[in-house]
Amino acid sequence: MNSSGVPWTAAYVDSIGEPTSDLRSNIAAEARAKIVYERLINVTDDPGIKDALTFLMTREIAHQKSFEKALYAIEPNFPPGKLPGDPRFTDVFFDMSQGPGDQDGPWNSSELWEKVSDRERQAAVDGEGGTATVGLDGVEAEADEAMRLRTRSNPELDRVTGADLGAGPGAGSTTGAPGER
Asked: Residue ranges of the domains in the chain?
């Protein structure tokens, strides 16, 4: 049971089932929480609040360090999972930047990377025409058509919504003429 007496359920488990990915997620969560505590500390003058927030922020640091040590104790730990990437693309950096400000670094240019800046080579990396295509069998095509019909939009409709009804000063334009709201 938790501190409120609620029985334990599997809902308490927050895992995707890949320890290295879970650890990375935990590291990121601790980093975000630390920044939140920093910002809260910066907006209060109360010494007691600052002391409590500093303690909590420091625990986030300790947790992050523990998760990082656990992650780096697993070898190899990157990339997460077991299946290899497609070797045609794992070491390719498609430089889509245009104009000034393009930066090079170990993340996009070194002996580890094939840098592709040519726009023609970027357009169709699959060797096809460069447009996304999906092949559907008969059953899949029928399901796709049924969903398309069920979820299609009617651009002629412009009904009054809850947002229109509650719109007050500063809401900007809403459905209907001003006298109709």
From this structure: 19-72
